[in-house]
Amino acid sequence: MCDDFTREQEDAALARMESMRGISRRQFAALGGAAAIAACAPAEGEALTIADAGMVEKTVNFETADGTADAFFVHPGSGTFPAVILWPDIAGLREAYHMMAKRLAGAGFAVLAINQYYRSAKAPVLGSFMEWRTEEGRAKLAPMIEQLGPDPVMRDAKAAVAFLDAQAAVDTSMGIGSCGYCMGGPFTVFTAAAVPERVKAAASFHGGGLVRDNAQSPHKLLDQTKAHYLFAIAQNDDARSPDDKQVLKDAATAAGVMAEVEVYAADHGWCTLDSPVYDKGEAERAWGRMLKLYEDAL
After folding, report:
1. Which of 148, 149, 174, 191 could make a disulfide contact with 157, Cβ separation 3.0–4.6 Å?
2. Is the peptide bond before 276 cis (omega within 30 degrees of 0)?
3. Where residue 156 sits, what CATH number does that domain have?
4. 138-173, pLDDT tens digit by residue?
5. DSSP state, 84?
């Protein structure tokens, strides 16, 4: 739900950043990659730890029903590991998500972070989250977003699973996990519905549109899956749609699938490293719950 509703919290966060560090909204939007991440990170405390020693990382391409997708693939240097499909937020695959994928790989997974906009352009389409907040960024992404929906994402998920199952680093005896942020939150459910025999865990962080008024609403697809779920909901998303958490719980119960549904004390975007509302404490808590989900389900 990266819209005008969540923009208010981002404006407040950027105002605090400008006051504390002299960085304006315009300057932050102009920052890219590591610079934006560094500007947004908490002022005190230790830096985010990423275990990258011995990692194998590369940009890969794989065929889908709609063309050739590009993605960032990273895994430990030796051995086989359960695979995870990572769906970025609305601003797309970029350095922030490379870093998040590398950290997850360091925890013992083969991670495929997908450029969901591959039908239009190679990644990175935008360099940082705040580029999405500019008029130019929104205009650039608008036609790309229109090409996405449950059916295209499910086709992409099937192709991603086929790619992963062909990789020497992937342990195909274990289930595949999925995680998604913002726009990517519902994509995790679409992924589990696309390949239910392989996708066994799905984690949605501040996911938008998990409860919709149509037949392909993610909550209505849970009974087509065999996955365990983590739905980590932003407090401002919950304030706007307070019934969604119970709808998700009821749908999971009816579908007979395990689901942890919780509202976190942070705003939409809190898990993404280059978001102005990144909240390290709640992001770390969500991270731990995701690892527990994968431990239990894969």
Report:
1. 191
2. no
3. 3.40.50.1820
4. 999 999 999 999 999 999 999 999 999 999 999 999
5. E
| Three-state secondary structure call for residue 140 | helix
Q: What is the rounded distance in angstroms from the CA atom of residue 188 to the CA atom of residue 233?
A: 14
**Could you report how far apart the first and last alpha carbons of the chain are, in Å?**
29
How many other C-beta atoms are found inside a 10 Å radius of the C-beta of residue 251?
22
Q: Which residues of 120-150 are buried (b: 16+ CB within 10 A; e: fewer)?
A: beebbbbbbbbbbbeeebeebbeebeeebeb
199-218: pLDDT as tens digits: 999 999 999 999 999 999 99
Structure tokens given for 24: 């304006």
Report the alpha-carbon distance of residue 291 to residue 109 in Å, rounded. 10
Neighbours of 71 (CB within 10 A): 24
Place of tokens 């705003």: 267
The number of domains in the chain is 1
Strand-pairing partners, residue 72, are 59, 113
**Hey, is 79 helix, strand or coil?**
coil
Between CA 102 and CA 89 the distance in angstroms is 17
pTM: 0.87
